[in-house]
Specification:
heterodimer, A: alpha+beta, Aldehyde Oxidoreductase, domain 4, seven-stranded mixed β-sheet, six-stranded mixed β-sheet, 28% helix, globular, disordered N terminus, B: alpha+beta, Ubiquitin-like (UB roll), DNA polymerase, domain 1, 2 domains, five-stranded mixed β-sheet, 5 helices, 5 strands
């Protein structure tokens, strides 16, 4: 075998086949609903029909053999009745007070799925109704107090300079209000788990999930068992996008409670699509208000931003979503005076949760729409206004973070315009649209997205990754980071193969199972490649170092030498293992109290350009072309990376033009794929993806995170293009034909 | 009609080239019978209402959503599922292309998408971009934004060209 030390043979940067690709294209990959166990029961959740109230009585309808059913209520919970996450406010099952429609109250299990469904419908609740609130305005106005003392889950204030002093000197003061709606993650595989639980053996859960250790933490509290008695195993997961970040803790607990009551018989709960859509988390709806001071040269003097998100009935992850949205609210611009007031508030709807972008798509939408308005008032083009205000190396973000990496937003903008022929189209469309029923427009958004947990988050997580080598030289990577389609298995193997200079095929990634992988943190926040990948690299290097320190491996070696060294090590000392724990890069400082400092270790920087047509007869807006240009550090895998961007852009197009959650009394009415519309292959424009690579010193092989970035820029770029096409400024998404019709008829 | 009060029927059909006798309630969904009785779990349920196409199979050469097909309807039919697409260990050109271009991410829509692509190429060996978009429009994917899936179909028909 050849020596692989020269850069020509590096695996990072090459489009190697996805590790589990063959299993996925042949149908051999096993997802949770593909598994079954002897004696398995099916579980179902009986939910509240009302948004708020007090339970007086649970009634079991006549004509069903209730003694055959396993029935679990809050009274059966062995530990604490709370889904442990950040706060402990959300119960697994309602004991008395219902806080949202579809809140779980009672669980049923039976071997016959059909009988189970009949029984689920036969359980009813006598409820004393209480007044609910459904909007963030009602929550802020304290129409009812439904959570804590003031309905506020969390508030942040970010201060830079002194924004109060700028208004008097400003040549222009521009205000605007922007809104975004809820969005369903709509992974094609619904939530599902199988649980086996009893007092002797403890609790084991298999399921579709992003974060096995989140589920582990929640089950510890629910069952009050020691750590080693709880085991969580991720099965092949059919998409997550944030929707399987926190919710699996709920469904896992439910299945485990049923199994516990059934004496340890396996219980499977698989949501059907309607239940998954109506009951599980969605993207937080938001409202952002901007007040911006600009001088006559088009320089930003001050930005005052109020950012509010609707968290739903329980705290879940809202404080962290709010944090990311807040930090991204002022964008990649150099503004000396900024104040951001941000609040996450409670309403009586199912808790909103993680969804790709995690607050940033909401606040970036507002900013990038607002800046087009500001440019117009100042009398500059949207591009020229941004050019005069882009941030550069050495300048500071809203939280006072000094940018220490080379940033070239002007360069990205110029290249994106060249790729789309933006300038020429901007002028040509404006001339040609007059009198036409198909109006064309082009618009863009410029933005950044921080990778990894915010502030001190990664320090608190203290993530660990392991690597072990067997006698055959095969290396197994041990991490709780999950493959959910984004390519974790492949990327980790690439990084380890290059670190060890051995064949890619010798690296395998262990199935995430809390009984044999360390906690490498949750699979969220664009952190898996950049943060956990770096730990993979150092754990792998640890193996090499051990072999070289013990004299079993020379400085220069082949894959065959590697195998021989591993064999000798295993013979002499046993299995070769190495672990690596997160250490922050030098010079990272974050003040949680003041919300000041280095919010993220690294940012990806981007300019996205959308071209649209608006049909003045049908009021449909279509995206005709989309260019996504971003600087993301080293691209570890060009095909997987482009796939992340394309998929994220498609979700952003859905968020902007198609995906409308219809609410009634705090309940999603259109909880079906028939009437909640995501883009199909016929709706998506060519998505053209371009990368620039500025290696990040503390990422594996120079990589930064990219998973969430592509969700951020689509909505404002598309609405900026629609304004260019129609002359009408729309400031909310989703923007449906009905809203286009109403506004365009008014201006006609 | 509730299924548990109806007596089961025997249905003979061919699945992936093998003759088989299915015993099920006449209105049982083909999807469930394939998954539970034959343990062909490559066919996935995404929505249960014929919107997402994850449960696509070929019945007598026609692409159908198996969640909408009562088992009685496939009596005497030839059914092909994802498990019958490869020739032993030799992947179909479409499957190989999905691996190479990144057409599969989370993989849950992939079996249905592969069948839709195989069906498209059987009917239209040299599809235009519009043919590909329309041919796959009954199969939803939430991961890829479809670009890499289009690439896979193009690559698969180029490969089929070389072979012929």
């Amino acid at each position: 075998m050849s020596n692989q030390t020269d850069t020509q043979t590096k695996i990072v940067g090459k489009p190697v086949p996805r590790k589990e690709g063959r299993a996925k294209v042949t149908g051999a990959a096993r997802y949770i609903d593909d598994l079954r166990m002897d004696g398995m029961l099916y579980g179902a959740t009986v939910r509240s029909a009302v948004p708020r109230g007090r339970i007086r009585e649970i009634k079991f309808g006549a004509g069903l053999p209730w003694d055959e059913f396993v029935v679990v209520t809050a009274a059966d919970i062995p530990g604490e009745n709370c889904v442990a996450l950040i706060l402990l406010d959300q119960p697994y099952l309602v004991a008395k007070f219902i806080n949202h429609a579809e809140e779980p109250i009672l669980l049923l299990a039976h071997a016959d799925k059909h009988l189970l469904e009949k029984a689920r419908r036969a359980v009813t609740f006598d409820v004393e109704p209480l007044s609910p609130i459904f909007t963030l305005e009602e929550s802020l106005a304290k129409k009812e107090i439904i959570w804590g003392e003031d309905n506020i889950f969390k508030s942040y204030q970010v201060n830079k300079g002194n924004v109060d002093e700028v208004w008097a000197q400003a040549d222009f003061i521009i205000e605007g209000e922007y809104r975004t709606g809820a969005q369903e993650q709509l992974y094609i595989e619904p939530n599902g788990v199988i649980a086996v639980a009893n007092a002797d053996a403890g609790v084991t859960v298999w399921g579709s999930m992003q974060c096995p250790y989140y589920v582990h933490k929640a089950l510890l509290k629910l069952f009050a068992l020691p750590e080693e008695k709880i085991r969580v195993i991720q099965t092949e997961t059919g998409g997550g996008f944030g929707g399987k970040e926190e919710y699996p803790s709920m469904i896992a607990g439910h299945a485990a409670l049923l199994s516990w009551k059934a004496g340890g018989r396996p219980v499977k709960i698989i949501y059907d699509r309607a239940e998954d859509m109506v009951a599980t988390t969605k993207r937080h709806p938001s409202r952002t208000r901007h007040r911006t001071a600009v001088n006559k040269d088009g320089k930003l003097l001050g930005m005052e931003i109020e950012f509010v998100i609707d968290g739903g009935a329980y705290a879940t992850l809202s404080s962290v979503v709010l944090s990311r949205g807040t930090i991204h609210a002022a964008g990649p611009y150099n503004c000396p005076n900024v104040r951001i007031n941000a609040h996450a508030v409670a309403t009586n709807v199912p808790p909103h949760g993680a969804f790709r972008g995690f607050g940033a798509p909401q606040s970036i939408f507002a900013l990038e729409r607002h800046l087009d308005k500001v440019a117009q008032v100042v009398g500059l083009s949207p591009a020229e206004f941004r050019r005069r205000n882009f941030i550069h190396e050495g300048e500071t973000t809203a939280t006072g973070q000094v940018i220490r990496e080379p940033v070239d937003m002007e360069g990205l903008l110029a290249r994106a315009f060249e790729l789309t022929d933006y300038q020429a189209k901007r002028e040509r469309f404006a001339r040609a649209n007059e009198g036409r029923s198909l109006k064309r427009g082009i618009g863009f958004a410029s933005f950044m997205h921080g990778a990894g947990f915010t502030g001190s988050g990664e320090v608190y997580l203290q993530s660990i990754v392991g690597a072990e080598a067997g006698a055959d030289g095969r290396v197994r990577l041990l991490a709780a980071s999950t493959e959910i389609g984004q390519g974790t298995n492949t990327i980790f193997a690439q990084i380890a193969a290059d670190a060890l200079q051995i064949d890619f095929d010798l690296i395998e990634v262990a199935q995430p199972d809390t009984s044999n992988v360390p906690n490498s943190g949750p699979t969220v926040a664009s952190r898996t490649t950049m943060i956990v990948g770096k730990l993979v690299e150092s754990a792998a290097l640890g193996l090499k170092q051990t072999l070289q320190n013990s004299g079993l491996l020379k400085a220069n070696y082949t894959t065959d030498d590697w195998r021989a060294a591993c064999r000798r090590h295993v013979e002499q000392f046993g299995l070769l293992k190495s672990f690596s724990q997160y250490k922050p890069p030098p010079g990272i400082n974050w003040d949680e109290g003041k919300y000041q400092g280095d919010a993220y270790g690294a940012y990806a920087w981007a300019v996205y350009v959308a071209e649209v047509t608006v049909d003045m007869l049908t009021y449909e807006a279509r995206v005709e072309d989309f260019v996504a240009l971003q600087e993301v550090g080293k691209v570890v895998h060009p095909v997987l990376a482009a796939g992340q961007i394309e998929g994220g852009v498609a979700q952003a197009i859905g968020f902007t033009l198609y995906e409308n959650v219809v609410w009634s009394e705090g309940r999603m009415l259109n909880n079906q794929m028939t009437n909640y519309i995501i883009p199909t292959s016929a709706d998506i424009p060519p998505i053209r993806v371009y990368f620039e690579e500025q290696p990040y010193a503390y990422g594996p092989a120079g990589a930064k995170g990219i998973g969430e970035l592509p969700m951020d820029g689509g909505a404002p770029a598309i609405l900026n293009a629609i304004e260019h096409a129609t002359g009408v400024a729309f400031n909310h998404v989703p923007l449906l034909p009905e809203a286009l019709m109403q506004a365009l008829n008014q201006t006609a | 009609m509730s299924t548990e009060t109806t007596s089961k029927v025997n249905v003979t059909c061919t699945v992936n080239g093998q003759s088989c006798m299915l015993t099920a309630h006449p209105l049982a969904r083909l999807l469930d019978v394939l998954r539970e009785q034959l343990r062909l779990t490559g066919t996935k349920e995404g929505c249960g209402e014929g919107e997402c196409g994850a449960c696509s199979v070929l019945v007598d050469g026609v692409l159908v959503n198996s969640c909408l097909v009562p088992v009685l309807q496939v009596a005497g039919a030839e059914i092909k599922t994802i498990e019958g697409i490869a020739d032993g260990v030799q992947l179909h050109a479409v499957q190989q292309a999905f691996i190479e271009t990144g057409g599969a991410q989370c993989g849950i829509c992939t079996p249905g998408m592969v069948l839709a692509a195989v069906n498209l190429l059987a009917q239209t060996p040299q599809p235009t971009e519009a043919d590909i978009r329309n041919g796959l429009a009954g199969n939803l994917c939430r991961c890829t934004g479809y670009m890499k899936i289009f690439d896979a179909v193009v690559r698969a028909c180029q490969r089929a060209d070389i072979k012929s």
